[in-house]
Write a structure and sequence with these properties.
heterodimer; A: 274 residues; alpha/beta; Rossmann fold; six-stranded mixed β-sheet; four-stranded antiparallel β-sheet; 9 helices; 14 strands; 32% helix; B: 127 residues; 78% helix; elongated
């Protein structure tokens, strides 16, 4: 098991102001699988991901990454866990703007005791594998969103971690690039034998997921019926979502704003033509 | 009685130090998100301190070289224009200024270390 979380709780604040972001959560991820965690905004998804990635300490519970109980480690030992065992992919790519694509990937390897030449070759090979061999010397501002995310994926793979954690990896991409990234993540899980955990609102992530979990109010729920918001594409919980009916069918929305857009022009979002 | 030149030198050192410290501090604050990214992907505070110290030393060295070069170029012109103003460049003074510049760069780089330590890598998850 690459990632094991047992009874993990995270409480922000104290006393009357205390907010429980994660409430005794159990979670496992193993190599070769893509696990997608969905849920409404404020459900605790980012807290879950940052705790799983050794960026944030839980209030209670136990977390193992690649067999190491990170809850027992000292604060100063956590960066090494992130460096060696976890690869992060962010919604806003988070590349260093002053560095080229190659340098962004190489930088992560360079401090690993690897020689500069070997680090460069590995960064080159990863970018090549992700179809970016013609973009090695491009700065992030010269890359498209999809290319930036592929550079970020190469950086996440740079130190060959077993665990890849992705936070809304398709949120800033158009549908075509988003689909490419999703397929890439599945390919990485299966072919490179990684555990890929994705936090997402994007309903299309279901297509590439081996497991989909619903996180709400800090807990995983198995009894949730979900639907896709026809306006923005987010996955929403049917029970709690604003609803509209059109031609005998029910539609569910993430927020009133999407509901209003739908009501203004339902044909547009149902593909029925006006 | 303290010679006026010593007073000027001490003031120059203090002013230089404050300017260098503010420059390095501002540069660090401006790049806070990038330092946060580095922390998130596993770089230690120690590594980031080293980056800031290196930046400070490189900037200080460049500043010294440019300043020393300008002094050598401008000194004869100054003497020609104002003969009463005697400029006498001694190698031990040049070395002394180089040493003080280095000291300024090191002290200036120490200023943003607490700010660096306080950068929360979780913040980079915000879009």
């Amino acid at each position: 098991m690459v990632l094991r979380m047992q009874a993990v709780t995270k409480v922000y604040g104290a006393g009357d102001a205390a907010v429980t972001a994660l409430d005794s959560v159990d979670f496992d991820a193993q190599t070769g699988e893509v696990v997608v965690v969905m849920g409404p905004s404020g459900a605790g998804k980012t807290t879950f991901l940052t705790i799983a990635g050794a960026l944030l300490r839980p209030t209670d519970g136990r977390i193992e990454i690649a067999g190491t109980d990170i809850t027992r480690l000292r604060e100063k030992d956590l960066p090494a866990v992130r460096r060696h065992n976890v690869g992060f992919i962010f919604q806003s790519f988070n590349l260093l703007e002053a560095l080229t694509a190659l340098e962004n990937v190489r930088l992560v390897i360079a401090d690993e005791g690897t020689s500069g030449h070997a680090a460069r070759n590995r960064a080159h090979a990863l970018l090549d594998m992700l179809g970016l061999s013609h973009r090695l010397k491009s700065l992030p501002k010269q890359l498209s969103g999809g290319e930036k995310q592929r550079v970020a994926i190469a950086r996440a793979l740079a130190n060959n971690p077993d665990l890849i954690l992705a936070d809304e990896p398709t949120a800033n991409l158009d549908s075509k690039r988003g689909l490419e990234v999703m397929r890439l993540l599945r390919q990485i899980a299966i072919e490179l034998d990684k555990a890929v955990v994705v936090v997402s609102h994007d309903h299309r992530m279901r297509e590439v997921a081996h497991r989909v979990l619903w996180l709400e109010d800090g807990r995983f729920r198995s009894d949730v019926v979900t639907a896709r918001d026809p306006v923005c594409g987010q996955v929403v919980e049917v029970e709690a979502a604003p609803t509209a009916s059109f031609k005998g069918q029910s539609y569910y929305f993430c927020a009133e704003q999407c509901l209003k857009l739908f009501e203004a022009n339902p044909h547009r979002y149902t593909g029925t033509g006006s | 009685m303290i010679p006026i030149l010593i007073v000027i030198l001490v003031l120059a050192f203090i002013v230089g130090l404050v300017v260098a410290a503010l420059t390095i501090y501002t540069a660090t604050v401006e790049k806070a998100r990038e330092y946060g990214i580095l922390k998130a992907v596993g770089f230690t505070n120690g590594y980031l301190y080293r980056v800031v110290f290196e930046q400070s030393l490189i900037t200080g060295t460049l500043g010294f070289l440019i300043g020393a070069g300008l002094t050598v170029v401008v000194a004869p012109l100054t003497q020609e224009l104002v003969p009463q103003f005697v400029v006498f460049i001694r190698w031990q003074d040049v070395l002394g200024v180089a040493g003080f510049t280095l000291l300024m760069a090191l002290l200036a780089a120490y200023v943003p270390t607490r700010r660096l330590a306080a950068i929360d890598p979780v913040a980079v998850f915000k879009a």
